[in-house]
From TrEMBL:
Name of a matching Pfam family: PAS_9
Ranges of residues in domain PAC: 96-147
Domain GGDEF: 297-412
PROSITE patterns: GGDEF (PS50887), PAC (PS50113), PAS (PS50112)
Organism: Luteibacter pinisoli
Name used for this protein in its record: Diguanylate cyclase
Amino acid sequence: MAEPVDLSLPAAHADAGTVQALQDVIDRIGQVAGVGGWQLNLADGVLTWTAQTCRIHDQPIDHVPTLEEAISYYSPEVRAVLEAAILRGIEHGEGWDLELPLQTAAGRAIWVRAQGTVEQQRGKASRLIGTLQDITERRRDIDALIASERRFRSLFTYSLGLICTHDVHGVLLSVNPAACQSLGFAMTELVDRPLADLMPVADAQQVPAYLARILSRGSDEGRLRFLAADGSVRVWQYRNVVDVSDGETVILGHAQDITDQVLQEQRLRESAVRDALTGCYNRRYLAETMALGGFGERWACVAIDLDGFKVINDTHGHAQGDDVLVRMAAFFREHIRDQDQLLRLGGDEFLIMQPQATAEDALACVERLAAAHNAPCAFTAGVAEHRVGRTMEATLAEADADLYRLRRHRRR
């Protein structure tokens, strides 16, 4: 903080050259520091400016101002603030430190820091002295920062994108209204909560890995799943970056809620791998599963053909045949294990895939189906157990061979 400058110069023991030298020193210091000085003698109302104060006002350095002129550089409302500060100083001995807008003699609009203090004699104010500094550039920087903050706040508040910040431990620091709306929570319900608290258990376990990645790389992107207030799962496509300011590390997050897109993708994929008539998985699903490594090393399967299905189609028409297929699919689902998967390979061919099962499990499945006695149509089933080293096709072919052996045996 610039201290008020006493402009009085020692005269009792100094000649004119010394006084001028001291005045030059004061002028150079003021010019280098960008700080001017002033004093007002209350007895005669004489106001004195240093050369730097004259420069700030766009006046010649030897300009001699009047008090009325000095006040006139300020607008009426600002002038009232300055006059009130001066009056308090005279009456109560209080100093002042103000930042004020000022218009110079050349018409430039600037900001100045005006400081003042009061000197007293015999308990009465006798002189005001102070400093004046052009702070226009600093004020411009502050105003720019304020404007930037205001723009960011507007973007944060009104953006359709999901914006949030969290600390290095994954605790939410701020959340914008769009993010609150996506999850159905009030802002107060989200701030100060760990990300993991808002995720399904499996996703929450991945938060430490996410934090490690983003802190080491400085940014990270991908998908995160959150639990909304209504219990539904929302999927966010995010791109987050690390921000370090004043020694504090914060993660800035920006995301989009792509839940509807993900659900549509799932529906499209489901329609591609499911039979449109029965809802069973189809051959494409089987091929994709095989490409991803199949059903593991241990599994069994049941191959099923409907008996006399061609007669149903020929006698009652394809609509009746379709109805039988739909009801047969429902029948099979009713009697297989939760982990088993039902496929329709085409026509009247069905397949039950049994993960972590043996041939005995497959035979038990066939026995349950046979014992149900409520099948819409008769059927024949063959079983096979997958063995390490065999291909999936070979195991399925073995189940088909077992089915055909049973069918031939019945015809004898």
